Predict the structure.
Amino acid sequence: MPRTGENIYRRKDGRWEGRYIRERVDGKAKYNAVYARTYKEVKRKLDEAKRTLERKETPAVHAGKVSEIGKQWLSDSAAFLKKSSLNKYEDILRRYILPEFGEDELSDITNRRLVEFVNRLLLDGGAKKQGLTPSTVAAVLSAFNGIRLYAIKKGYTVTFSMECVRLRREQRDIRVFSLEEEQCLLRYLQGHMDRPALGIVICLFTGIRIGELCAMKWDDIDLAERKMYVGKTMQRLRGNEDADRKTEVKIIAPKSVRSVRTIPLPDSMMELLEEFYLPETFLLIGDSRRFVEPRTMQNRFKKIVASCGIEDANFHATRHTFATRCIELGFDIKSLSEILGHASVSITMNRYVHPTMALKRENMNRFSDLFAVR
């Protein structure tokens, strides 16, 4: 029996047949058919055949040059993108997409052309032809997909799809200080305590980002309630003059809505905070007008790490280390996720929590009693 309205039938030989109108000649319908062993499969084939026919019948609406549609996409996106994200996409277009596709008609780009482009980026992309990392190529594809979706939304014909590209994401080693390294670093900071050293201690015990630390003022810390408010970050961004690519330091909204948060402070830190407390000033310098920018703080941190004889690490290692210590101390993941300002618990688990071998051994030794010989 046919399924009502679908024009699908079970044949005497056991196969399923689906029919669709190929064309009409003098008012009469001309049919084509597809066949399969199951109803589900013939339904899929029938739907695909109809879509293919619709694409052939729909006249192509060309989007225009990639450079033109890319500029329109960025202009329309500026209203809801952060300045840092806008700068990132502008740089990706200028460095990678426009040199390759800028003068091409977007509607003429094929999947094969996209795959060849990606392979070249991985093999010899970059200023030194060293090849780009999969994560960088993924960012390029993300920007290109933004242009693609923008064109589709505008009703233009686009024939390529990002599904034709598969990138192997390599898991990067995340630098986490061992307990011994962290204790060595804390001893050095205690012996050379100043405002920047205090900032590093705060990050080791709260996990805030370097930009959030540099933007923080003492008014963001409530000593009486023993809590800290994180509501802004500091970044060096390209200014409005695109031609000379000048940059400037700006204090902006944090990474995401979830990054706006209030963090309880450990009681052990309160005496140190009270010693340096100076209202209406930046925490790292004790001045209301001057500040320490992230790049400067990163350089200071690396010098301190080297002075401690610790293997090289960037400032973000303090955040990784904080998350790892929290897990070792038995923090519940939901609380840790909110303290770190993550959008979901899975981000906390997958990106920032790195159990040490000692913790793994402790967990494995819980089997000891089960296998004890009586």
